[in-house]
Amino acid sequence: MDNIIVTGGAGFIGSHLVCRLVKKYPNYHIINLDKLTYAGDLNNVEDVANEPNYTFIKVDIVDFDAIFEIFKTYNPIAVFHLAAESHVDRSIVNPMDFVYTNVIGTVNLLNAAKAVWDGDFDKRRFIHISTDEVYGSLSEQGYFTEQTPYSPRSPYSASKASSDHFVKAYFHTYGLPTIVTNCSNNYGPNQYPEKLLPVIISNIYHEKPLPVYGQGINIRDWLYVDDHCDALELVWQKGVIGESYNIGGNNEWRNIDLVKLICKIMDEKLNRPAGYSEKLITFVKDRLGHDLRYAIDSTKIRKELGWQPKTDFIEGLSKTIDWYLERF
């Protein structure tokens, strides 16, 4: 049985991918590596916890010796690398955590794969999942493509840009079979509560202020997590070694408009008067270095691999809200 390693598999996106792989590919053994920091939760993968083709290992990817032993033991056919510190606000307060996990941790994984695979790269894949934030900030026009120069503007995006460069360098220098993906903002069940949508959903429910940075004019492209996992699965099966693929939802929203939309949907679900929750919106001091707009051009993955997002945004948002409401 071939082995697949998923790092960060107890986190938001990683847990969705792990559950999918375990259920869909019973002839593959899925090894979930996670440090179980604040954002990792084994409840996210409880649906597959007892499956015979699933193993969880608690490990810090900064610990090279531990990572090397895992790679040596399982000699994976594929690696999906999702483990990362990912919250911009936290990176502004403590950049070093992001350097250790996102940069050193990634290089440790690359070195372990290089050592264990030892030139036997046939059918191997090292898929590095990154962010659109590495490209910097857009004005109201244009889109990020795979040829857009990197221009990170926060410690978080700088750490992810560095890890992307290392992954690409290991392909060019050592021939390691790497692929990089850069995705837009994900949403869906299981997301840690510090992110925008869970914060807004929770605060509306509890009738607390809804914090919106600046004037709420920053624009993000939103992608349902299962659509992202569809793309990652295709990249694993059909992606070209050494290439990068942008994964976007073609679904841009100003933050303030998105917050108002969530207010509207939740007022309906909670039987509150129309406009009730909008009164909770509170504008707060803008974040340092807050990029104006991110927007992904996903033409390449659509044309070359046949991917496209399937989830209607209102439908996905409603499902996401229902998931949180069931847990309050």
What does this structure look like?
This protein is α/β, with parallel strands linked by helices. It contains 10 helices and 12 strands. It has helices at residues 12-24, 64-74, 88-93, 95-117, 155-174, 196-205, 225-238, 255-269, 299-305, 313-325; strands at residues 2-7, 28-34, 54-58, 78-81, 125-131, 178-183, 185-187, 210-213, 219-224, 244-247, 252-254, 281-284. The strands form 3 sheets. It has a 7-stranded parallel sheet, with helices on both faces. The chain has a 3-stranded mixed sheet with strand order 7-9-11. The N and C termini lie far apart (41 Å).
C-alpha geometry: globular
- Report mean pLDDT, rounded to a whole number: 95
Uncertain segments of ≥5 residues (pLDDT<50)? none
User: Helix/strand/pairing class, anyone?
Assistant: alpha/beta
Q: Could you state the order of secondary-structure elements as H and E?
A: EHEEHEHHEHEEHEEHEEHEHH
Main sheet properties: 7 strands, parallel
**In percent, how helical is the residue content?**
40-55%
Query: How many extended strands?
Result: 12
Individual helix count: 10
How much strand? 15-25%
| Largest sheet strand order | 3-2-1-4-5-6-10
Protein traits:
328 residues, seven-stranded parallel beta sheet, three-stranded mixed beta sheet, alpha/beta, 12 strands
Write the layout of secondary structure elements.
Layout: E1 2-7, H1 12-24, E2 28-34, E3 54-58, H2 64-74, E4 78-81, H3 88-93, H4 95-117, E5 125-131, H5 155-174, E6 178-183, E7 185-187, H6 196-205, E8 210-213, E9 219-224, H7 225-238, E10 244-247, E11 252-254, H8 255-269, E12 281-284, H9 299-305, H10 313-325
Helix pairs in contact: 1-7, 2-4, 4-5, 6-8
